[in-house]
């Protein structure tokens, strides 16, 4: 069986033979003309009669010519063009047939499932190619990757099709869909997942956590916010346990122990370090909070039966019922 390339070679060979034969015919005619000029009229007439007996002008159809060389019993009467055969060049050759003259087989020139049809011009046949192929004999697989359809991947050419091998992070027929690389629960503790190219990152802003997946609780006590107390780390927060005498968010406010008014009865309060003192010197009270009334008569300062009258950090003696006088009824009246 002949391949399509073999059939094309055969056609080119036949064309070459025809061209060489015509050239030989011209040369032969010139030689014969010279010979007839030099030879006898009898030889010329004999050659003409022999050719006329074998083939006359108009016998050869479809562009065929009478055989140009010496005529013998085995010489075909007509030299036919490559598309025709037969005694008078009237048999149209079927270039699409799987068989040729003499029963020899040859393959259809159309490859890859192409449909062959005979034509009236060289190369005397036409191939209608199936999708995906082109060329005279449908021998060329069309490169479906030529248009670069794979946006983010490598293209493999198929028959009337292509296949994309996507780069990491891309998917879809043409590798133009960014794959969602954020799996469920990728970012912890309220972190926001940001899809990347084949990977992801976590935005831990305002969560109180850090780390590639927001898995680390940020130590809010690292900056030592509690000025006069102990810090306890919370989530995005902290708590201060203040030392005695301090208060406020950061234990930076000195506690005012006089604010509650601990000094009674007009005593004057003085705030101290974690304590207070009451000045009772200007009132008739005593003790830590000026809560105890001072009894200036407790020591019985009035003598000889004088009556003691308690005052403010003082006393007076009423000596009227006695025979004595003086501040303490200590002097007898003469």
Automatic annotation (TrEMBL):
<keyword id="KW-1015">Disulfide bond</keyword>
<dbReference type="GO" id="GO:0005509">
    <property type="term" value="F:calcium ion binding"/>
</dbReference>
<dbReference type="InterPro" id="IPR000152">
    <property type="entry name" value="EGF-type_Asp/Asn_hydroxyl_site"/>
</dbReference>
<protein>
    <recommendedName>
        <fullName>EGF-like domain-containing protein</fullName>
    </recommendedName>
</protein>
<feature type="domain" description="EGF-like">
    <location>
        <begin position="141"/>
        <end position="176"/>
    </location>
</feature>
<dbReference type="InterPro" id="IPR051022">
    <property type="entry name" value="Notch_Cell-Fate_Det"/>
</dbReference>
<feature type="domain" description="EGF-like">
    <location>
        <begin position="254"/>
        <end position="291"/>
    </location>
</feature>
<feature type="signal peptide">
    <location>
        <begin position="1"/>
        <end position="29"/>
    </location>
</feature>
<dbReference type="Pfam" id="PF00008">
    <property type="entry name" value="EGF"/>
</dbReference>
<feature type="disulfide bond">
    <location>
        <begin position="242"/>
        <end position="251"/>
    </location>
</feature>
<dbReference type="InterPro" id="IPR013032">
    <property type="entry name" value="EGF-like_CS"/>
</dbReference>
<dbReference type="InterPro" id="IPR000742">
    <property type="entry name" value="EGF"/>
</dbReference>
<dbReference type="InterPro" id="IPR001881">
    <property type="entry name" value="EGF-like_Ca-bd_dom"/>
</dbReference>
<feature type="disulfide bond">
    <location>
        <begin position="110"/>
        <end position="127"/>
    </location>
</feature>
<feature type="domain" description="EGF-like">
    <location>
        <begin position="51"/>
        <end position="90"/>
    </location>
</feature>
<keyword id="KW-0732">Signal</keyword>
<keyword id="KW-0677">Repeat</keyword>
<feature type="domain" description="EGF-like">
    <location>
        <begin position="178"/>
        <end position="215"/>
    </location>
</feature>
<dbReference type="Pfam" id="PF12661">
    <property type="entry name" value="hEGF"/>
</dbReference>
<keyword id="KW-0325">Glycoprotein</keyword>
<keyword id="KW-0245">EGF-like domain</keyword>
<feature type="domain" description="EGF-like">
    <location>
        <begin position="293"/>
        <end position="330"/>
    </location>
</feature>
<dbReference type="InterPro" id="IPR018097">
    <property type="entry name" value="EGF_Ca-bd_CS"/>
</dbReference>
<feature type="disulfide bond">
    <location>
        <begin position="129"/>
        <end position="138"/>
    </location>
</feature>
<feature type="disulfide bond">
    <location>
        <begin position="166"/>
        <end position="175"/>
    </location>
</feature>
<feature type="disulfide bond">
    <location>
        <begin position="221"/>
        <end position="231"/>
    </location>
</feature>
<feature type="domain" description="EGF-like">
    <location>
        <begin position="92"/>
        <end position="139"/>
    </location>
</feature>
<feature type="domain" description="EGF-like">
    <location>
        <begin position="217"/>
        <end position="252"/>
    </location>
</feature>
<feature type="disulfide bond">
    <location>
        <begin position="80"/>
        <end position="89"/>
    </location>
</feature>
<feature type="disulfide bond">
    <location>
        <begin position="145"/>
        <end position="155"/>
    </location>
</feature>
